[in-house]
Amino acid sequence: MAMRYLTSKLAQQIDEELMGSVGAFSIDQLMELAGLACAQTLATVYSKDKYPRVLVCCGPGNQGGDGLVAARHLGMFGYKPTIWMPKPGSKDIYKRLKAQCDNMKIQTLEPSNDTQSLKSALASSDVILDAIFGFSFKPPVRAPFDAALPLIANSGLPIVSVDVPSGWNVDEGKVDALALDPDVLISLTAPKEGVRAFKGRHFLGGRFVPKTMEEKLQLNLPEYPGFSQIVELPRADDAQKL
Amino acid sequence: MAMRYLTSKLAQQIDEELMGSVGAFSIDQLMELAGLACAQTLATVYSKDKYPRVLVCCGPGNQGGDGLVAARHLGMFGYKPTIWMPKPGSKDIYKRLKAQCDNMKIQTLEPSNDTQSLKSALASSDVILDAIFGFSFKPPVRAPFDAALPLIANSGLPIVSVDVPSGWNVDEGKVDALALDPDVLISLTAPKEGVRAFKGRHFLGGRFVPKTMEEKLQLNLPEYPGFSQIVELPRADDAQKL
């Protein structure tokens, strides 16, 4: 049975059920495991010796929260993360996640609507973690992200995107001119409909889906190896050959 | 510089600081990472093919919470965990962690003051995760744990203890006749004074201590490999030889 790709609507439903009666998880728990999986994926592909300086780009929603958690874990792994979060979310959890990064002495660029600080940061980074937009993204891309995405795309740096590459339509894929073209993707819980044709290295994280939910929704998730929190998926090209 | 072994008092202080201004962590986050480290340690030593049935013994405090998180992750890894938690803690977090296990269809023995159900469960288990008492333990061992510890000790099953083997004095070690004699120990954050002479395989987990805290308290934690959440420590005998 083929792995199921989630529509944005189903992804939203699963998220609600995981934090509701089906899962009973707190957002703290889910974000911790999701962010850890993001950090472990980046560390799997880009070693801290060759790519120590990670620019973690965070959006205003839950995806930005995953980015903050990932930044903290990357710091624990020995990377030198810097956070760019121009529109910090107002929820209590983002404030706490940000305080945890502050306590780890992880630098955050000043929130701002212009992209000057982003430009400088890109010039002194080795790899980007794109945690800007996730499965709740609805076009169009708004300021300052409309100016930021081309800067990130043209930086020449490798990009690891979280869940859905920023600028992509969650259901339809890479249809917008502003869409990023990441090298690596880490899907969370299950991959989204829009990333079916993604050509780079593709990982899955979020090893917390109850079996009953997986079966009811026929997610057909791949088997994670051992006690790993991430699993690499076959490349789109290879999967078609099978 | 040698790794620091924590007194019960210092362990308590660190726990408070991690959840206070020094760390700003929520208990959900710390328990999630601690419990994951416990599950990964057990999975490192006891394969799910040879030791599928894990009896997770949980105390009434935060250590029991770590056990519930570990049970859930063990279930995700493909083990068949069963929970024995005769005195469930009253805090909201234990109820949520228990509900998460229920949602994963992990069996919990009925809470009870007698040890009949524990006896049966021991007879159909392959390995024990001992999450009964942690660094807040103060003797004496109270019912039903006074009757349970000898049953666990005499079961002949391998034991993985969390943080401090149950029945051990946190500062003085294995001085009580009821103390367990585990094969494996997973210390959390930093090892406690009482386990200095522990002779089995010894792991460290809880990779969330801010560098500033580590330096201020001169913890001299060992380096974790790569992006692992656990690190194995040299055996007490080997360390003395060095």
TrEMBL record, chains A, B:
Cofactor note: Binds 1 potassium ion per subunit.
Substrates-to-products reaction catalysed: (6R)-NADHX = (6S)-NADHX; (6R)-NADPHX = (6S)-NADPHX
GO molecular function: metal ion binding; NAD(P)HX epimerase activity; nucleotide binding
Positions contributing to (6S)-NADPHX binding: 62-66, 134-140, 163
Locations listed in the record: Cytoplasm; Mitochondrion
Binding of K(+), residues: 63, 130, 166
GO terms for cellular component: mitochondrion
Uppermost EC category: isomerase
Limits of the YjeF N-terminal domain: 11-221
Cofactors (names): K(+)
Family from the record: Belongs to the NnrE/AIBP family.
Protein name, as recorded: NAD(P)H-hydrate epimerase
